[in-house]
Amino acid sequence: MSHEIVTAPELAPPVGYAHAVVAGPGRLVHLGGQTALDANGEIVGEGLVEQLDQAAGNVLAVLRAAGGVPEDIVSIQIFVTDVAAYREQLPELGAVWQRRFGRHYPASGLFGVTRLFDDPALIELMAVAVVPEERGR
């Protein structure tokens, strides 16, 4: 059984996210916050687009280690240090999202924060996934 995307008819249609996701059965996996850290522990990428690409790759690496695939993500929180810049770059950010996650849009929220743990970090992703038992570790 896959996850069920729920759209509330009285709300504006969701674009790039789901109103709600009813998770199918499986192992609940909480993915720790991922920024644009590379394997050497350094933030890579000067801008949001490059940093999203690295952070998304990091999320997927952790998810794969837990036996999951992008479609197993049921929710994601996106923390950015500049919401206006995020909005301005939505087409480019959307292209990165689709390349990394496909057309899978979990329940999500975007949060503006004053800073992240590493000063050069512009974006951080935290996700929750439900990995089917037959694929889980």
Characteristics:
26% helix; alpha+beta; 60s Ribosomal Protein L30, Chain: A; globular; 27% strand
Summarize the structure.
This protein is an alpha+beta fold and 137 residues long.
Write the layout of secondary structure elements.
Blueprint: E1 4-6, E2 20-22, E3 27-34, H1 48-65, E4 73-80, H2 83-88, H3 90-101, E5 107-112, E6 123-131
Q: Helix amount, in percent?
A: 25-40%
**First-residue to last-residue Cα separation:** 18 Å
User: How many domains?
Assistant: 1
Radius of gyration over C-alpha positions, nearest whole angstrom: 15 Å
CATH class term: Alpha Beta
Kindly describe this structure:
With 137 residues, the protein is of the alpha+beta class. It has a single domain, classed as RutC-like (60s Ribosomal Protein L30, Chain: A), CATH 3.30.1330. It is 26% helix and 27% strand. The mean pLDDT is 94.
